[in-house]
Structures are given as C-alpha cells and as structure tokens.
Design a protein that fits this description.
Blueprint lengths: L1 H35 L18 H6 L6 H32 L5 H10 L9 H10 L6 H25 L3 H9 L4 H12 L1 H17 L2 H6 L7 H4 L4 E2 L2 E2 L1 H35 L1
Antiparallel strand pairs: 1-2
C-alpha cells in the first residue's frame, strides 16, 4: 500500500514539475503572441479578452520598417547557407571518414576547435576583411560568415553517421561498377540522411537567428530579421507590439521546420549521439 501511495505521489510531483516547466517556457511565447495582436495602449494590460487587430503586422511592412525585405534577406541567407554547407560538409566528412591522410586527427580537431571561439572575437577581423572586399552590407558577406560557423559542426555531425556505414556496402557497390561519386550519391547519402537533415536544421537555425555579426556588417540593404528588431527602439520607447509581431515572423519558419521534419531531427540527434 505504501509503495502505491509513494508511486502516486511521485506521479503528482512529476506532473507539477512538468506543468511549471511548461508555464515557464510557454508564458513568454504566449505574451508575445497576444501582444502582437494588441494596440500599443493595451500591450501591458493583462486583459484576458480584447479585440485583436492586424494593424501591427501592417505597420511593420510599411516604411520605415519594411520587415518583409528583412524577411527575404534572412530567407535567402539561411537557405543559401544550408545549400552550400551541407554538400561541402558531406564531402569533407566522407574524406575524414574513409581516407587516411597525414595529420588527419589534428586537422579534424582544429576544425572542431573553431566552434569554441566566441563570435565576438572574430568580429573585427571579419569586418576589416569584408570591408576590403566590398562585402559589407551584402547577403554574400553574411552567407560567408555563416558558413564559417556552421560547416565545422556539420562536418563533425555527418562524419559520425558516415563512420557507422559499413565499408562492405560501399565496396560491393564499387565491385558492381559504381564510381566513388556514385557510391556517395546512391549509398552514403541515403544511409546518412538523418544526419544530413539534422545538420541542415542546425545550419538553418544558426543562419536565421544570427544577430551580432549581421548587426555590425549590415546597415541597410542586407538587414536581416533579428537585426530588424532593433528598429523598434524609438523616441517613444520600445514598440513591443511591433517587436512581438516581428517575433512571430521569426519563429514561424522554426515551428514549421520542426513540425515537418521532427521525426528526422529526433532520429538524427539520437543517432549522432550513439555513434
């Protein structure tokens, strides 16, 4: 009987902890979503019932904000980063996994070590380099910056999946007449697909949410959504209703991406951890 009561008490405590955690995580998101549909005068009023308005979304699309242009910049930069990073990282990961070269462990660890360098330290070198190359305030500059951060992680993650693919599978395909590139295309990529998808998600999230370097390296033409949030700090104060409306636009691709490929993401994360 005591064991039954103890088990029931444990279940209740777990339920309370889950509820509290959910409230802590979801409460700010709920406040932001609600504030996005409120007029400025009602943003800080805790009304459960109010008349929602789309005026905030209309306002952020008009001058001087023009958030739709920032959204386009972010989308182009993030998608291009993924489109370049995943093929490059896949070929690099395959090379580290299948070919023996002198100093490969040192080279691989040096690539991974770049992940531990804070981005703020690289801010000045990137700024000077891109200024000399006339790449400041360009999407190309932002794409190159993002690639320098996401490719090392993608190489590390994808390599774990390629390591787990039996060499016999590739050798059998090559015996049947396949070239190395055909083996990579027809054998390695399909078998390592969960890792590629997980790495692609990571690359997209980093590129989509990058703020510090984009803030310094852009001024008008290549402004991204995270940087666009700083436009709402005006003489009137912080326009939280407009910030919230923009925040929804920033989160929507993340939620949509997670919903569509959550199965692959979970499989890729756990698979990479095991390997």
């Amino acid at each position: 009987m005591a064991i039954h009561h103890q088990s029931k008490l444990t279940t209740v405590v777990q339920g309370i902890l889950i509820f509290v955690t959910a409230v802590v995580i979801l409460a700010p998101i709920y406040w932001m979503v609600v504030a996005a549909f409120k007029p400025y005068a009602e943003v800080f009023q805790p009304h459960l019932f109010f008349t929602p308005t789309l005026d905030n979304f209309v306002a952020i699309m008009q001058p001087p904000y023009e958030i739709h242009k920032k959204f386009l910049n972010s989308a182009i930069v993030a998608l291009t980063t993924v489109a370049i990073a995943i093929p490059v990282a896949t070929m690099a990961a395959y090379s580290f996994s299948r070919f023996r070269i002198r100093g490969e462990k040192t080279i691989f660890m040096a690539i991974i070590a770049t992940q531990f360098v804070p981005s703020v330290i690289l801010l000045l070198p990137f700024f000077i380099l891109f200024r000399d190359l006339n790449l400041l305030d360009t999407r190309t500059g932002l794409i190159l910056v993002n690639l320098s951060f996401v490719i090392p992680y993608a190489v590390w993650m994808i390599k774990g999946f390629i390591d787990a693919i039996p060499l016999d599978t590739e050798e059998a395909a090559m015996v049947d007449g396949s070239t190395r590139l055909q083996v990579i295309k027809n054998v390695v990529i399909p078998m390592a697909a969960p890792g590629l998808i997980t790495a692609g998600i990571f690359c997209f999230i980093v590129a989509w949410n990058e703020f510090l370097l984009a803030l310094i390296m852009t001024s008008r033409d290549a402004l991204t959504l995270p940087v666009g949030l700083s436009l709402f700090n005006t003489e009137q104060g912080d326009l939280w209703q407009l910030i919230s409306a923009t925040g929804i636009l920033i989160m929507l691709p993340m939620f949509a991406l997670g919903f569509v490929i959550q199965k692959h993401f979970v499989q890729g994360s756990t698979g990479g951890a095991v390997r």
